[in-house]
Structure formats: C-alpha cells, structure tokens
Amino acid sequence: MKNPLRTALPTLKGDLKRPRTAMLLAGLVALPLAAVTLTWPLAIALGLVVVLAWQKGYQSRWVRWGAVAGCFAVLWIYRPDNQQDFFSAAVLALVATKMLELKTLRDGQFLLNTSLFSLFAAALLTPSAWMSALVVSGTAALLLGQYLLLNPDDQLSWKRLWRLLKRTGVVVLAVAPIMIGLFYAFPRFGGNFFSLGLMSGATAGLTDRLEPGSLADLALSDEVRFRVESDNPATNLYFRVYVLEEFDGASWVQSDQSKPEPATGLIGDRNVTIEMPADGQTWYPLPEWPSSQYLNGPAGTLVPDDPVEQLWSQQFLVSASPIRRQTLSDLDEFRLTEMDQENPRTQAWIEPLQDASLNEVTAFLTDYFQRQIYYSLTPPAAPDFAPVDALLFDSKTGFCGHYANAVTYVYRSLGWPARVVTGFQGGRYNAVGQYIQVRDADAHAWLEVHDGEQWIRIDPTAWVAPERVQRGIDILGDAVTLSTGVSRDTFDAGVAGEIARTFWDQVRDGLDYVQRGYTRWVVDFNQERQQSLFSGLKQQWPWLGLLLIWPLWQFIQTYRRQDPWLRRFDRWARRRGMKRSPHQLPSQVSPEPSVREFCLAWQAWKYGNGSENQLAACLNTLRKA
User: Fold this and answer.
1) Distance in angstroms between the alpha carbons of the first and the last residue of the chain
2) Model pTM?
3) I need a surface site. Which of 403, 469, 501, 527 has the fewest CB within 10 A?
4) In a 3-state reduction of DSSP, which class is residue 454?
C-alpha cells in the first residue's frame, strides 16, 4: 500500500541549486532566537561556522564533524543559565552546522524547517507584539524559500513576487477571522501558554538585597515593569516592594523577625489600579498607602504565593499621606536601632544631635544634603570600611541607595528606629493610553523612621535632587537612555528639536500601548479573561447579529448562483464517493449511461428547449440506480 503522504508531497530528490538563498533566509529567521538566548562566545562560534559555510559551500565529512564538535563544546562550556535557553542555543547550533552540508533539496528544506522552529521558540520565550510580527513575516519568507527550492528554474521577478504575496495575503485574510475566533473561543483550563518563556530570560530587576549603588544599573534600563491607572494620574507616587530591616555588614536584607502589618486605616483619596505583566517576579508593587487591603508580606508589603506567571491587576484605595501609624514593641525598637557598621567621623559629626528631636535631626540632615551632596548615577565605589563617612565627607556624590544607607545609619545611631524601603518611585505618563509606565529606571530606595507612634517616609533623594522625585528620572537627561539607545536629549534644541522629541514620545507611547493590549488579549488571555469577554458579548448580542448579516448574505448569494440541478447531482455524486470540479460536466465524473443521459438532459434544459420534467426523470433514474 502506498503512503499517501509520499504521493501528496513533492519529492525532495536532486541537488540544491540555491544554497546561499536557503542560508540567508534561515540565518535571518534564526536571528530573533539568537538575540534572546546566545552568549557571546557561542554567538562568535556559530558566526564563524556560518561564514565558513557561506564561503566554501558543501564541506567534507571531517570539516562538518569538527564544526559540530566545536560548536557543541563551546555550547557546553559557555552554556546559558537555564535549560530553556540551553536547548534553544542547541537548536541554533544545529541550524548553523547544517549549513555546512547543503547539498540536496532535502538538506535545504530541513534547514528552513529548523529555522522556522527556532522562530516559534523565540516567540514563546519573548512574547510580544513585535515578536509576533516577526513570526508572521519570517513564516512568509520561509514559505517563499520553500517555493524557490522546489522551483529552482523559476525566474522570480518583482511582478511575479507581488502576485504570489497578494494571493497569499488573500488566503491569510480569509482564514484570519476563523483563527482569531478559535483562539478566543477555545476553552482555557488555567495557566498561561506563554509561561514556558516567562522564567527563561525573566529578571526580577529589583531584588531583596540592597547594596549602596546597586540600583544604578537599573537606572539604565527602560523595561516596563508595571503600569498604573489613577483618577489623579500623578507621576510622583511611591510603590513599595521590599522592606529591609537588617544590615549584614555589606548590604541591607529582609529580617526573619518581620511580621505582616495591617493596612493603615487612613481614608483614601484616590483609586490606583496596578497592572503588572507576568515576568516571573516574586513581588508585587504596593502603592503608599493602601487604606483597605490587608498586607500579607513582612513589614507592610504584598507578596505573591508563587512567581507571577499571569497578568496581575489590583485596585487600591490610596492615601497620599506619608505617615502610617503603628506601635513598636521593645524588641522591634532594639532590632531597628542596631547598626553593624563603623563610621567614626559620622559618629563624631552627629554627637551634638543625641538629644535632638526627630524634626531637628531631619532638618539638620536636609540642610547638609542640600548644600554638600550631589546626585550621580555613576558615583565612585563605596569602600568596605566606613562607607557612610566616604559619602558624607569624601566623595559627596551618590545615588538613592547611598543616601538611604547613610541616613538610616544616622537615625539608628541616634536611637530612632529606621529601615530601608526599596521599590519604585515616579514613572512616565503615557498620553496615548492615559496611564503611567513604571520602568526599571524608576527603581528607588528610601527609608522609614518611627517617631514612637507612626512610620514616617523620608526620601533623602528629594533633598539632593527634588526634580528626580517630582518629575521622574528622565529629567536627568543623557544619563538614562531608552532600551533602543535613543535619548530625548539626542535631539537638537530649538523648535525642530522639540517637535522631534514630541514625535518620539508619541511613538514610544503608541508602541507601549500596543504592547499592553497584546499582553492583555494574547499573552495573558486566561480563563478568567475569557469568561469576562463572553459575558460582555452576551450583552452585545444584537450588534453581533448585525455583524453576521453580511457573511450570511454572501453565503445566500453564492448558494443562489449555483445551478440547482448540478447541486442535486453533486449531492448524489458525493454519496457515491465521487466529486465533480466546477469546470467538469456530469458525464466526466462517471461513465455510467444514466449519468450520460442526465448530462444530455441538463444541456438541453440549460441551452436548448429541454423540459425540467425530463431532467427530473433522469435524476430519479440516477437515484434508483
């Protein structure tokens, strides 16, 4: 018995006449996955293999085996940190080494199919609207490559290429509504299809440890961590993530003795909705101060039970007050005034403040920081011994983490319970979507001091660089650039420069708005969102009925244009296992005499003076046969 697949698919025998075309298409399609997963040594090794294949073409067995062994040796030595990236890099190594043996049509098709697999792997690892666009365009390019491989003698002109692309586009547009409908109608059983890639390259950005200066690297990242909607969209909000109450000699860490703290009980004056895409984070951002939610994390934070693998959205009723009432026990007061750090010059400097009130200490520090300390994203490295002395009296230059460490040390040394808080402050307003984008660059550190009755937020950065707190880190200029490498300060000053900056801001806002919609309705379209969609559609059923009128009308018109007698004959033929093409006569389907008689009667009725009674009699004869 013959294999139906072998008869249906074209044979792949013969030499490959366009090997460089196959290599070029495969290399371009594999680039997105390479950008996501490859380490530099492996990228260089695979690049050398591709160059060798491009220059020399088909290689001998020893060269091929040597290249395969070398690539996989480099892959093993400089392998990525997780299994998903490792196996993705192995696929890329397979694509590169396969280029060394492009001899037959089967080799070319195997190369293109493998590169297509790498493209879909990249889409799973980095789910975004732009990666989906690359998948669509890459798939189209590979289909064109398959056509060129199977038709090497075809002189593909621009006109013929346009006709092929137009025909393909018509088919895609016809199928797209069905595919979109199936995507949204297919039952969701929980979980996230794209969660395969959430933990591969995901970095939480902010960690539960703070070393002075550790947040400076995040200030160079424009990656959006979450988005905020508010009835009062101010960009100077604070979002708590970690509360660090212990200093281990090198960095601030969370305390094992911290306990969950209840919500403030303050009357909220604004609604704040936070929407955070799934990226494997182990934290939730919490606006200051929520007035109605119970905080399950230590020291007034909100902590997920598991890493975030689905879109998280939460609405808070927030009070703008920087004060939160709480009574501390004697043990907590003792624990929050300990400081395992030696700074003799600072101790001598604050000696006159031992009996000062909290307001007096704060006023003293505010005055000194405003006059003597400067803000910089690239301060000198803090020494291991007496880092607070070095900041306050030597370099006098720092970042938010330096300030929080130094000021917390001062308050604790004077007997005031204090702790460091890390999170995010500010953000960038998106005028297209009317929400606030909070990015890695907005990561921030500040402190809280307890005055005996309540926690008071103190942000030393506001003393040194108040524009950073009021208007966001973008106001600092060229120190922070976009992930695309373009800064708003790149544009020239003047009217033309302002127009260019405004246009670039609108482009950024539009791109982020598209990505937000893609995250909502594709990446994180889960069971809950599907139920919400169908609930909304039930209320809009009259409009849905109107949308179905046009395709139903087209179907009726198509049905009416068909010949009624041929339609009855086709129904009879299908029951007998036969199928008539639109260009065929009934007599060309079957040589039976009854079919021939029906065909002659149909021709007489269609083009002559034949009667419908005679045609109906011939059709009845067919049905009885």
Assistant:
1) 31
2) 0.72
3) 527
4) strand
